[in-house]
Write a structure and sequence with these properties.
Layout (H helix, E strand, L loop, with lengths): L1 H23 L8 E3 L3 H7 L6 H11 L6 E3 H13 L8 H11 L9 H10 L6 H11 L9 H8 L6
Antiparallel strand pairs: 1-2
Helix pairs in contact: 1-4, 5-8
């Protein structure tokens, strides 16, 4: 029994280390505080993919009196619970592939930036043009300016055991 407790404590300790490392990457003033606008990026970097509504609820839970900042002491326990309970799981690789294949009506194996921008700014949870510009800079093949979605899926899917 003591061995199981130690293993569980070790798992929590590892989760805390991951969360702190992700949080500290955005703690530009080294004061255990991040801008509320960075929380989505931090959560995504930890392999969690909440909907916009879930993200909004999570921020409401941890934000410090609507100041626009989140402190590590509030974020750490809430995010630990999210990770240990496997909330906001990533979308399975095969579903992502199916989604891209639906968008790729001509079965080319890629999408053009304009196509992806149209889908992402006009349907579902909408992205702003600024968000799309950032995303396309990171995702598009720089020589051909195309988005090869099978390569992209490999980047988007995270091994949950990492």
């Amino acid at each position: 029994m003591a061995e199981n407790k130690q293993t569980a404590e070790s798992a929590v300790s590892d989760v805390h280390k991951k969360i702190k490392a992700a949080f500290e990457a955005f703690d530009y003033e080294s004061n255990n505080t991040v801008d509320v606008r960075e929380i989505g990026t931090i959560i995504f970097s930890l392999g969690c993919f909440p909907s916009q509504a879930d993200l909004h609820d999570f921020i409401a839970e941890v934000e410090e009196d609507h100041t626009g900042y989140i402190h590590l002491e509030r974020f750490l326990p809430a995010m630990t619970k999210v990770l240990l309970e496997h909330k906001f799981p990533p979308i399975p690789e095969d579903l992502l592939l199916q989604a891209f294949e639906v968008l790729d009506k001509e079965k080319k194996g890629y999408l053009e930036p304009e196509e992806l921008t149209k889908y992402m700014t006009q349907e579902g949870e909408l992205f702003t043009q600024e968000e799309m510009d950032e995303m396309l800079t990171a995702l598009a093949d720089h020589e051909k300016n195309l988005i090869y979605y099978k390569d992209l899926i490999n980047q988007l899917t995270i091994d949950p055991d990492m």
